[in-house]
Specification:
16% of the residues lie in helices and 29% in strands. The chain has 3 domains: 205 residues, Beta Barrel (Porin); 228 residues, no CATH class; 89 residues, Alpha-Beta Plaits (2-Layer Sandwich). By secondary structure, it is α+β, with helices and mostly antiparallel strands. The strands form 6 sheets. The chain has an 8-stranded antiparallel beta barrel with strand order 1-2-3-4-5-9-10-11.
Length: 716
């Protein structure tokens, strides 16, 4: 009995300690197998995805327990911990709502009791039960995000028992307990008691109590019903796994478990109460049909609300409803946030040099109506195929950094072009298989281009003459790209079929005035790999790294590598340049004949042999210097000077910085933190100490603003 109460006391104290610390858990989550609609959330914004409760998502549980009997045997006498027995429980549970759960439960075990005097009776009963419990978890009185749940339960169950007693030793002699505490083979008052032989209990419960008591009680049923009433604590270890500690008293409807009832005679007479037993247990549970844990945004509800109400251009229309973001300060806008356009020529009044153009007139780039002759002249220039009007003004920056005969080495060279012919090597909607990825990276001038259908095309070459493009296409087909085809690469990165009209617009001369390079599939191509990330990163992260080839792997990672190099020296120089710019874990990789190869085999002795892992990463890895990623707190943004009351608060904040954005808005920022949690704590401190409300977190990489979620990704 003492053991059970000590365990209950320990569970209660553990619940109190956990409840105090629950607010400090770094990543709390909603403790349900399905995520129900939020309660008490005035903003209507929450960081998890919620669905309506649905049946069919059970939780399985299994665990051991301790069973202690309370009945006629040992009811009025000393109870030893040795009387308790082991039990095991199995359960299948289902959430009916956020507060209530129903559980089908089975329990197997044994009960035991023993008295030393004056009745000297004992029993052991194997027991098995099954029933339904209704569990209440106090959800409405606890924080929504938590790791522990206290609970109460009650229900109804059916159970069977088989009770036996130890009255005979192993040779069949019946025990007789004498007044001096000894056990003999005959009664103390027997005429031949002087010849009695001492016996020792073998603690083997061999005699069926119902058969032993049959002359007194008949063949009574060894089954009954019970009402369980209990309490405990449920600990959420991780999504889908829980650890439950509890204690339940089972109030039975029978008095026959120990074989003693009020109908027994003399000292063997029992009390009038029904038998009961206490189950103290723990259960490990698993949410069977909950394949993914809930997504918990690192942003709080207040931060999400601030983002939802943000008005970046300060025109009085929040960004989510602003159809024309980036409106300059002071410009009058309509209900959609767009500048007024009185004459409807699609040039807003503040930019329109002719605000009252005739209705339906065709206007130029300044909003001025054009005459018929001007329109005709513009048409001739636009449709020119003889190159009488158009000069080469369009540029592409950072072509592939390939060295060797016929190639330019400088990464910042400028190529003048109008349209170009390229060789399409492959198009992928999902991830690129590892073998095909190695083949693509073996092509020195391969480039990646996002298409309008969200697929990624991988192209090679840059040609103005169809015969040069077709020659390269045939080379690529023989090099392992059987589906290679000639395509037209437009200025926006899209690809078009080389129709006669498009080919007519490509002048027959070399784009870069260099001979067409000869690609040998036996050449080694060196690249510098900057990392593999779980999300596609914004271009600002690699702004100083030059043109990147981006490949999505089958594992959902985005792999970033540089253009190709023909020599290990050039690749090592590029890696050194990247390390100085903050990509401090970049490394060189080598490809040959469509496969990635160890550097030690192709570097001419520059790289010593070592065990290189040539497998593609299956988890995110990056070369970004995490010191260049930091968080700040944006306190406010104002078109002009902030109101007097807010300005007074801002003046008290140490280290506050004022930045003027290109839109003319004054942005007030404070703090520089390497940790998201530190920045969040600073924001909360601003709210408490200075009364600043609406402040939210922003993130930077090398002083370029990036999304907060992207900064969290880079710091992993």
């Amino acid at each position: 009995m003492k053991w059970n109460w000590l365990l209950i006391f320990f569970l209660f104290n553990l619940f109190l300690v956990s409840a105090q610390d629950s607010t400090q858990v770094p990543k709390p989550y909603y403790p349900y197998p399905k995520y129900f609609p939020p309660q008490g959330n005035p903003s209507g914004i929450d960081s998890s995805d919620f669905v309506n409760p649905k049946l069919g998502s059970p939780t399985l549980g299994i665990g051991p327990g301790i069973l202690t009997f309370y009945g006629d045997v040992a009811d009025k006498f000393s109870l030893s911990p040795a009387q308790s027995r082991l039990g095991f429980n199995l359960s299948v549970s289902e959430h009916l709502s956020r507060s209530f759960e129903i559980s089908a439960r089975a329990m197997f075990g044994s009960l035991s009791g023993s008295e030393k005097g004056p009745r000297f009776i004992n029993f052991e009963s194997s027991i098995r039960s099954g029933g339904l419990n209704l569990i209440y978890n106090f959800d409405r009185f606890l924080p929504m995000k938590r790791r522990i749940d206290p609970f109460l339960l009650s229900g109804f169950e059916y159970f069977e028992f088989l009770s036996k007693t130890d009255v005979l030793d192993k040779t069949g002699n019946q025990y007789h307990y004498w007044s001096d505490g000894s056990i003999m083979n005959m009664d103390e008052n027997d005429p031949n008691a002087a010849n009695a032989i001492p016996l020792s209990r073998d603690y083997s419960f061999e005699t069926d109590i119902r058969k032993w008591n049959n002359p007194f009680f008949g063949k009574y049923p060894e089954r009954s019903f019970a009402v369980p009433v209990g309490a405990g604590v449920n600990f959420h270890l991780m999504p889908r796994w829980n650890f439950r500690l509890g204690a339940t008293m089972h109030f039975t409807f029978t008095d026959y478990i120990d074989g003693i009832t009020p109908d027994n005679k003399g000292t063997g007479k029992g009390n009038s109460g029904k038998d009961k037993y206490l189950e103290t247990y723990f259960t490990l549970t698993f949410d069977l049909f909950n394949p993914k844990p809930p997504f918990i945004s690192p942003l709080s509800d207040e931060e999400l609300l601030a983002l939802a109400n943000e008005d970046t251009d300060g025109d009085g229309v929040i960004d989510f409803k602003d159809s024309c973001q980036g409106t300059p300060a002071g410009v009058t806008v309509d209900a959609k946030g767009c500048p007024l356009d009185a004459d409807g020529d699609r040039f807003p009044d503040y930019m329109d040099k002719e605000p009252n153009s005739p209705l339906g007139a065709i206007v130029d780039d300044h909003g001025v109506a054009m005459s018929d002759s001007t329109i005709a002249k513009n048409w001739r220039e636009w449709s020119d195929t003889a190159w009488a009007y158009v000069s080469y003004t369009d540029t592409i920056i950072n072509p592939p950094a390939v060295t060797g005969e016929g190639w330019q080495k400088g990464r910042d060279a400028t190529i003048v072009y109008r349209r170009e012919l390229v060789i399409l090597l492959g198009n992928y909607k999902e991830g690129v298989p590892p073998a095909e990825m190695s083949k693509l990276l073996s092509v020195p001038d391969v480039r990646s281009s996002m298409q309008s259908d969200s697929s990624t095309s991988y192209v090679a070459g840059s040609y103005s003459r169809l015969k040069d493009a077709e020659k390269r296409r045939d080379e690529m087909k023989s090099s392992g790209f059987p589906n290679s085809k000639v395509m037209v690469l437009n200025k926006d990165g899209s690809l078009s079929e080389p129709t006669a009209d498009l080919l007519a617009g490509i002048k027959d001369h070399s784009i870069n005035n260099l001979p067409t390079p000869v690609i040998d599939s036996k050449d080694v191509v060196f690249r510098v790999q900057l990392g593999a990330f779980s999300k596609k990163l914004s271009s600002s992260v690699f702004k100083s790294a030059g043109q990147m080839v981006v490949l999505k792997t089958e594992d959902g990672l985005y792999k970033y590598v540089t253009g190709g190099f023909y020599t290990i020296q050039d690749a090592l120089e590029e890696r050194g340049r990247l390390e100085k710019k903050g990509y401090n874990s970049a490394f060189v990789v080598a490809y040959k004949a469509g496969k990635r190869v160890p550097l030690s085999t192709v570097s001419g002795g520059i790289i010593t042999p070592k065990n290189e892992n040539l497998e593609e990463p299956k988890t995110p890895t990056g070369s970004i210097d995490k010191k260049l990623v930091f968080f700040s707190v944006q306190i406010g943004a104002f078109i002009s000077d902030p109101p007097a009351d807010i300005a007074q608060k801002l003046s008290k904040i140490p280290g506050i910085e004022k930045k003027k954005k290109s839109s003319g808005i004054n942005q007030y920022i404070a703090g520089r933190f390497q940790s998201y949690d530190e920045a969040k704590s600073f924001r909360d401190e601003l709210s408490k100490k200075y009364g600043i409300s609406g402040a939210f977190l922003i993130a930077f990489f090398k002083d370029e603003m990036i999304p907060v979620q992207e900064a969290v990704e880079l710091l992993k």
